[in-house]
Batch of 2 targets.
Target 1
Amino acid sequence: MTLWRALKGRVGEAPIFEKGAPGRLGYVLPELDFAAADDLEIEQGYLREQDPMLPEVTEFEVVRHYTRLSQLNASIDTMMYPLGSCTMKYNPRSGEKAARMGSFAYGHPLEPVEFHQANLRIMLELGGYLAKITGLDAVSLQPAAGAQGELCGLMMIRAALTKRGDPRKVVLVPDSAHGTNPATSTLNGYKVKPIKSGPEGYVQAEAVREAMDEDVACIMITNPNTLGIFEAEIQEICDIVHEGGGFVYMDGANLNALLGVAQPASFGIDVMHINLHKTFSTPHGGGGPGSGPVACVAELEPFLPSPVVVGTPEEPRLDYDRPESIGKLRSFHGNFGMIIRAHCFISEHGAEGLKRIGPDAILSANYLRARLKDYYNVAYDTPSMHEVVFNDEKQKEKGATTLDVAKRLIDFGFHPPTIYFPLVVPGALMAEPTETEPLEELNRFIVAMRAVDQEISDHPEELKQAPRTAPARRFDEATAARKPRLRYSPPEGSPAGE
Ligand SMILES: *Cc1c(COP(=O)(O)O)cnc(C)c1O
C-alpha cells in the first residue's frame, strides 16, 4: 500500500510506458532472410518520421505489470458483485473451457460452410432453446449486445409497419427504462413519448391507454422493470398496444427473474432481446464482448437479420434468401464465444435446473430487502423480483449519501451495487445478488451494509474519505467527466518522457 502511494498518487501501478529502459527486449527475432523495409522502395509519405512511442521492457516486466494490474481489479471471481441490472452471476469454468477449444476459437469464418457444421448446429440449438424459454417463434443470434438487439427489434417493427403501409412515428418508453431504450428509438428516427410509472413502481395500463394513438409504432417495456418490479399490468398493456395497431418490444435484460416462471410470449410480447452475457453467463463488466439475440413472433420473422440458421441439427445451413430481412447486423456468426457459453450454461442446467434460477434469484433479492429495509429505505413497497432498489433517504438525514455508502462498501470487500439508477429514484442504490451467491455471502453483505449505516450514525464525515483500503482513493468524478484527459503524456524523467 505504501509503495502504491509513493507512485505519485497514481493508481497502484505506473503505466507500462514509464517502465523499462532503451534497448531492453522481450524476445529476439531471428535474422531476416528477406530485404528489410528500410531497403525497399516505399512511398515517402507512408514512412514514420519518428519511432513509435513503445515501451522497451523485458518479458518479465510485462508479466509482472499485467499480473499486478489484474490483482487491482474488482471482479466476480474475487468478491460479490451486486451490480443491479447487470446480473453479475458466476461464470462456470466449463463454458470458458468450451469457448476456448481450438476448433471453436480458431475456426475461420470464411471457411466453407461444410467445415463449421458444429458451429451452425450449436447456433441452431441455442436458437431453439431461446425460443422455448421466451415462448416466441423465431430467433436471430446476430446482435452483438442488448443495445444492438434493441436496434434490431425496432428496425424489424419499422419494416413490418412499413409493409402494412403505416410506418408511424412514436415509441412509448416508461420513465424507469434503461437509457438504451430512448437512445435506440431516437437512432431509429422515432419520437419518444415517456410513460410515468405508477405508485407501485410499475406502468399502469391506464397511462398506456391515454398515450396510445395511431402514431405509436410500439412500446418498449422492460419486465421485470429496472426497479426490480414485475409489470403487473403487462397483459392489459400488450392488449391496448395491439388493439391500437402497435407492437410490443420487451427489453429482456432482466430475463433472469422470469426463468422457469413465465414466458414473455404468454403475456403478449412480439419481439425482445436477451442479453446472453447477463442471463446465461459470460464474464462482463469490463466492456464485452456481449451477445444480444432477438426473439420474435411469426409475423416479424421475415424481417430478422440475414442470414438465419435453418435446417436440422444433422444438416444445419445458413439461409440468405430473405428478401424482407432488415439486412446484416453483425459479421459472420456474431460473437460466437458467448453463444457457446450460453449453450453450455443452458444444457448443463437442463430444463429442471433452469426453472430454479428465477425463483432462487428472486429469493436472494427479497432476502436482502427483508434484512436491510429497517436500515435503508426501500424505494417502492412492492415485492422485488431479481433486484431490490433502496435509496439514501435515511442516510441523508444523518449527513451521508448513496455515493458514500457505495465507496465504503469497497473497504468491506464488495463491489458497490448500481447507484443513482434508475433515474426515477433519487439516490438509488440497486442490488442484484443473482441466484449464485451463497447464503453466507449474502449475510456478509447485509452485515457490511448495516455496519456502514452505523458508521454514518457515528461519524458521517469520515465516510467522505472512503474508500481507504482500495488501490485508489475517491476520484474527482466531476472533473473527470467535464475535463477528461484523453491523451497520455508521460511525466518528465520517466523512460517514456525522454
Ligand atoms: C444491460 C441492459 C441493457 C443494454 O444491454 P447491453 O448488452 O449492455 O447492450 C438494456 N437494458 C437494460 C435494462 C439493461 O440492464
Note: Residues 85, 145-147, 178, 180, 222, 226, 251, 253, 275, 290, 292 surround pyridoxal-5'-phosphate (CB under 6 Å).
Target 2
Amino acid sequence: MPFVSDLQFASIVPDGLPLSLVGIVATVVIGIIYSVLTKERPLAGFPLAAIEGQSPKKSWLFHGPQTLNEALAKYSGPFQVMTGTGPKIVLPNRFADEIRNNPSLNFQKAFLKLTQSLNLVTDDLVDETTAALRDIYGSSPEWTTTTLKDGVTDLVARLSSRVFLGQDVCRNERWLQIAKSYTVDSFIASYIMRMAPSPLRFFVYWFVPQGRSIRKAVRDARQIIDPEVTKRIAAVDAARAAGLKPPKTADSLGWMYEVARGRQVDYPASQLSLTMAAIHTTTETTGQAMLDICEHPDVAQQLREEIVQVIGEHGWSKNSVTKLKLMDSFLKESSRVHPLNLSSMNRYVEQPVELSDGTVLPKGSRIMVAANFADPVTYPSPATFDAARFLRKRQEPGQEHAHQFVTTTPEHMHFGHGEHACPGRFFAAHLDKVALCHLLLKYEWRFVPSEGGFPAPDTFETGFSGSRTGQVQFRRRQEEIVLDLE
Ligand code: HEM
Ligand SMILES: *[C@@H]1O[C@H](CO)[C@@H](O)[C@H](O)[C@H]1NC(C)=O
C-alpha cells in the first residue's frame, strides 16, 4: 500500500472535493456524534501504545515507527495500537513462526504458474527493459537530473505489464497510467472514506475525486483488456481447429486462463488486483536500491563487475540471473537497512489462539507482527550497510538457500512470512535484477551534488514510501557487454 503523509493529505483534500459545504459540515457533525457513540474501544488485557502527548490513534497514524519502537522496548510481550479502523494487537517477531503455520486457504497455488514461467519471461523482461530505458532515460552522456520515483514507477509499470498482459497492452499509454495511479487512488479514497462514519462510507466513495478516477480506471481497463482476452481465446480456438497445440503464452492472461480451468474469470478485475499488489511494492524496492547505489559507488562498481562476469559468460536466463549472488545480497541488505514496513503478517483471528507465553488472542481481533530488521544478534553491526552480508552467510556450509532475497524469516519480513508471504516475490526479485543489470551497466548514478543527499521517505503508520519529489542524476555509460537482445 502506498502512503500519504498528513501534510500531503491536507493538500489533496481541498483540491476539488466536490462536496458542498453543507455536505461537509453534515458529514463532520454526524461523524463526531457517531465516533462519540461508538468510541473505538481498546481490547481488554493488552497495553495500549502511544507516544507521549499524543492520542493512541494519532500516535499510530503519524508517528508509527516511534510508537512501535517505544512500545517494543517498554512491553516485553504483545501490546495493542489504535489504527484508523480499530484496535490491533502487535506481536514481537519471536512469535512469527507460531503465527505462520495457522491453517488457511492456499491461495498461493495460482502464483506457481508465474514462478514456474520465470525462464520464459526473462527475454520479455530484457526486451522491455531495453525499450523502456531508451524512452525514460535516453542516451545523453551529460549528467541529467531526474525525479527518481517517476522514472522507476514508469519502468516497473512497463515491466510488470509486459509480463502480465503482453507487449501491446504494456505500451498502451492509458493502461500504464491506470497501472501507476490505481493503487494510489484506491489508497487515498479509502483513507478519506475512513474519516467518515462507516454507514456513510459508501456514500463518500461516490463523491471523492479518487472514487471517480477508480471507476473510470475500471471501465477503461475493461476496454483495453477485454479485446486482448478475446484475441487470445480466438488464437487458441484457431490452433485447436487446425489440429495444432495452442500458442504458449507466458503472460498472466494465459496462466489465469489455465488456472481457472473453465471457470469464469474477471480478467480486468484480476489485473487491477495484481497491479495493486505488485507495482507499488516493486517500485519502492527498486527505488530504494537505486538510492543505495547512489550512496555506495564502490558497491555499484562491484555489482557491475558481477553482471559483466555472470551475464557475459552465461547470457540471459532464469539461471544466470540467479547466479547474481552479490546483487541478491545487496537487494536483501537494501530492504533490511531501509525497510518498507516495520510491521508484517497482518492476520484476522478466527478462533482464539493461545501463544507460547500464555497470551490469548481473542476471536475477532486483528493482529500483526513487529519486524526486527536490526536485531544485533542476527545482524552484527546492524546499522552498517554491508552489501555482501547475506552473500557471506550463504557461503557458510548448508546455508546456500537460507539467506536469499526471497527467503522469509522472522528477522527479515520484507515479503512477509509464512502461509501468506508474498507469492509474487520470486517474480519481483527476478524483475528487479534484470532491471538493475541494465540500469547499472548503461548508466552512472549519483545524488544531485548541490543537494548532497535525498529527502526522507514519507511515513504512514509503520510504512515508508520513498520521496515523490526527490531527484538524482544519471548519465549514459558504455556497457561492457551486450545486454540487449537484438
Ligand atoms: C518487491 C516487491 C514486493 C514486495 C516487497 C511485496 C511484499 C508483500 C508483503 C509484505 C505481503 C504480505 C505478506 C504477509 O502478510 O505475510 C505481500 C502479499 C502479497 N503479494 Fe507481494 N510484494 C511484492 C511484489 C509482488 C508482486 C510482483 C506480486 C504479483 C505478481 C505480489 C502479489 C502479492 C499477493 C497476491 C499477496 C497476498 C498474499 C496472501 O494474502 O496470501 N507481490 N506482498
Ligand atoms: C504495514 O504492515 C501492516 C501489517 O501487515 C499493515 O497492516 C499495514 O497496512 C502496512 N502499512 C503500509 C502503509 O503498507
Note: Residues 1-39 form one domain.
